[in-house]
Design goal:
Elements: H1 37-54, H2 61-68, H3 72-78, H4 82-101, H5 104-107, H6 112-129, H7 133-143, H8 147-156, H9 159-173, H10 183-192, H11 195-202, H12 215-228
Helix pairs in contact: 1-2, 1-7, 2-3, 4-8, 6-12, 7-11
């Protein structure tokens, strides 16, 4: 008897499946991270806080990562070095501050009282708008840390400052401004009666508990002191 050839297909034993080759990891943002400009801005703000707290020299990218509670890889994704981070801060944080202070003397070419009053208000506005500005300025004065100032000078020069000093000297020659004032000290004096007390407010070192001193009070005090002095008014 001839055996009938089975029409059922033979059992198929597949060869061992070949594991797919893992795709090469592409350089980029670390996985699982918060994405977008918000993270980048948060790292910039964290750097400014640390610069004000412990100085630029003692602030590394790793310390910024620890403060921001992210991985060092996250910081390195946005900023390849501290020098590059500082350049970004100059462009995106310090140049806007400089721009906010500009144009005062041009707007009041023959009225030093109006110009100085407006500049005083702007110092107060900037310090309240950018909370990092006052403590960072104060630390730079105390420790002589001039790195940011150096980078700003390299970026924009000092022509605006020279023009302002020339304007002050012209006011003095024309009898519009007290000739006993030292032009080079006027800006530092303005900052001293505005930014310094605002920095103290931020660290809660000024004002009685029942009557705290706010930014508006500092602006009024500074303008009155500069325009009218300490005599009765």
């Amino acid at each position: 008897m001839v055996k009938r050839k089975s029409t059922e297909p033979a059992a198929f034993a597949p060869e061992a499946a070949v594991a797919p080759r893992a795709a090469a990891k592409r350089p980029g943002r670390p996985a699982g991270s918060v994405r977008g400009p918000e993270q980048r801005n948060r790292l910039l703000d964290t750097a400014l806080v640390l610069f004000a707290r412990q100085g630029i020299a003692d602030t590394t990218l790793a310390s910024i990562a620890r403060e921001a509670k992210v991985t060092p890889a996250m910081v390195n994704y946005y900023f390849t070095s501290r020098d590059q981070l500082i350049d970004v801060l100059v462009e995106e944080r310090f140049l806007p501050v400089k721009a906010a202070l500009g144009g005062v003397f041009q707007a009041h070419p023959s009225d030093p009282v109006a110009a100085i009053t407006e500049l005083t208000r702007r110092f107060v506005d900037i310090t309240t708008t950018y909370p990092w500005f006052a403590p960072l300025w104060l630390r730079g004065i105390i420790t002589h840390d001039g790195l940011i100032k150096q980078r700003m000078h390299e970026r924009v020069g000092d022509e605006d400052q020279k023009a302002a000093l020339q304007c002050i000297k012209r006011w003095q020659r024309e009898g519009l401004l007290n000739s006993d004032l030292e032009p080079a000290l006027i800006f530092m004096s303005l900052m001293g009666v505005t930014i310094l007390p605002l920095a103290a407010i931020m660290t809660r070192q000024i004002g009685p508990a029942g009557r705290p001193v706010d930014a508006g009070a500092i602006a009024r005090h500074a303008i009155s002191l500069l325009v009218h002095g300490v005599g009765p008014h």
